[in-house]
Amino acid sequence: MLHTRQGWHPKDMDTIRQPIHCGCIADGQFEHARRDIEQMGIILNLTSHDEHVPEIECYIRTVKERVQAIVNTLPFKQYPNRLIVETVYNAIFWLNCFPHKDSIHATLSPRTIVTGSTIVYNKHCTLQFGTYVQVHEPHNNSLLPRTTGAIAL
User: pLDDT tens across 63-73, in order?
Assistant: First the structure.
């Protein structure tokens, strides 16, 4: 597991356009990549096998709380695996959309720093997660339905 102190997503580290000196915490499986990571200007701090890292544990608790809050608003008794995955993705997406108090930038969110993209209201804020919607389906001029029910993810 890899986690930076600034809230960056580990798989997006190679999209950094300029070297930014920051520290990241990783477990032993990243030892072989230490040289490459440090050449990007990132200080790698490896943890031992059973060492607990408070920043990571706090972030995991926050994600779990957000997921539980979303799940408790949904009217379902059972959740398919895809819905659980999308719920976690949604929680992390919104956590990364706003600036963190101890981030490397006071006004830019982690998502903006890493990807360069911002939130667009008409695209990201029109439907609440888990809302029942009718989606358009390909059709002909018959009397068959032209929409299908779906859940907004």
Answer: 999 999 988 88
